[in-house]
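2024-03-11 09:14:02 DEBUG pipeline.ingest accepted 1 chain
2024-03-11 09:14:02 DEBUG pipeline.ingest length=645
2024-03-11 09:14:03 DEBUG pipeline.predict start
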Amino acid sequence: MVTLRAVSAPFQPPVLIVGTPGSGGAVLASALLRASGVWHLPDREDPITQAVPELDPSQRGWDSHTLLAADATTNAQVITDDLAKRLVDREGKPIGERSGIPVLWNARFALRIPFLAAAFPQARFVLCIREPADATEEMVRAWQSGTFVSAGELPEWAGPKWSLPLIEEWRELNEKSLEEIVVKQWSVLSDKLLDDLNTLPAERWAITDFDSLLSDPGGELKRLCGFSGIEYDQALLTPVEATARQLTMVPQRPSDALLSCLEATTGARERTRDLLPTNVNRESSASGRAPAASESPFRSSFTSGFPQALTDLRSSLLVSTYQSGRLICARANGGMLNTHLRDFDKPMGLAVGPGRFALGTRTEVWDFRDHPSVAAKVEPANTHDACYLPVNRHTTGDILIHDMSFDKQGELWAVATQFSCLVTFNQDSSFIPRWKPEFISELAAGDRCHLNGLANRDGRPRYVTALGTTDKPGTWREHKATGGVLIDVTTNEIIKDGLCMPHSPRWHDGNLWLLESGKGELAKIDVATGQLTTVGELPGFTRGMAIAGSHAFIGLSQIRESSTFGDLPITKRLKERTCGVWMVELRTGNTTAFLKFEDLIQEIFEVCLLPGARYPEIAEPGSSAVSTTFTAGKPKAPPKRKGGN
């Protein structure tokens, strides 16, 4: 009997994700690593043999990647010390003396449960399982890719370079087909996992299956976070939802040869299927399709007050969503709300002028003009009161266009965040620099201060917001929670500093309003004194605002990117954040109506009202409305001839 001594670790007991390759362990790890206070290793190397090379199969007669409890007696402290040196947080920074939970995933863990349980006596295990046909199909592709080679120098091995965990039975598989090798590998790993985990106390391990994780990511991740002692946040959802969408777009079906090999493997296959939920559609799962819940990528809901407000204003609402690549026009119709979608490459800034609007995308500015005569021809008949056609596209390059506005002469101004300046446009250049903060030393690409917001006053650009006063690319991120500023363009004076990711300044009815996005708040600022008054809290990251009368339409985002938005006040206040447009009363800060987006739409960039256009059409470039509409300008008079008739 081996006696193990307790090893003190400079971090909390780790969460060890285990499962066969292709079972979803990598997806789950990617999700959990986005949580606050979670540590991970910055590379994909074997965390055990990297610390103790003597445990590698090449040093042990090429037996396998199996490790037993006895192997932990003299090596546990070395491995723990090595982890403490190499663990980093979600932003890649060393953990130092901070307390946190390491989350580790490696396919070889399937052969090392006794070792890991002994080396980390209080560690918790999460077993990932998946329908066998899907898991083995993933393994076949991993072998074929050549990027998962784990034992490339096996003696007298005639097959492809061994990939994924090395099992003891590898010699029996010499000259077998790839499908036979993979199925045997999966079967051995599955049996080993279930046998070893069943020797541990039930409170030390939990199970999740791939289909449940994809069909109900929020529910599964909350459950697993509760088991693991990890603080749940919506940021965890992104890699899981991305995987679900990818499987929907590119379905994979196991080959007949693989399915035939699986049929001959009854033990591990049946044990695994017995653990899957009884409501799993085996046929659908085996085809590689994602669960049905991921097949409806766009959903929205609204309160009755939202279409009523647009009706009262005789307006519609433009919403840009760069994350989903869509421009949305919300239109009221008979007490209902229609969300009209158009696809663009990273739609961001919006500006509205009389009979027109401009849209900034990744590399272009689009100019849309209303053609009322065309609106009457758009189906269904007698429904549309405006039709905006694209009449110009100006190439800017990727200048990270943020807020835009038309001045009183109709000239379009924009925030070029990449160059930390305000710009206008002409036919001869990408952009014309017009103003930059005094603390920016030169006109150069690099997003030095994340200049983002622009407000007109008396028909001219007057106020801007930035997330910092830094002069080196990206350094504003270091103080994003408190480094924001509001600047007067005409005087270069910093009116207010210490703001939490300010966006969307708007001058309305003699007051300056802005959004402290990092707090999820609407605020009012006295531009004479710099005094800030918080008007109201909202249930999301606030960005994008249009004001009409006594109400503001405010864009809300879920903010999934934990590396950019983590550790902000709003992520501490709200673990569940909302995406949509909230209608807020300026005097009280109370919400009076909302439009909520789900699934596909997670982030809002800009919100603009289209006054006088109750139910507009946004025509696509290749539509018949564009191809059959012509506008003829007045010809110039011919030059007069000199000295003759």
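2024-03-11 09:14:41 DEBUG pipeline.report The chain has two domains: 15-295, 298-627.
2024-03-11 09:14:41 DEBUG pipeline.predict end
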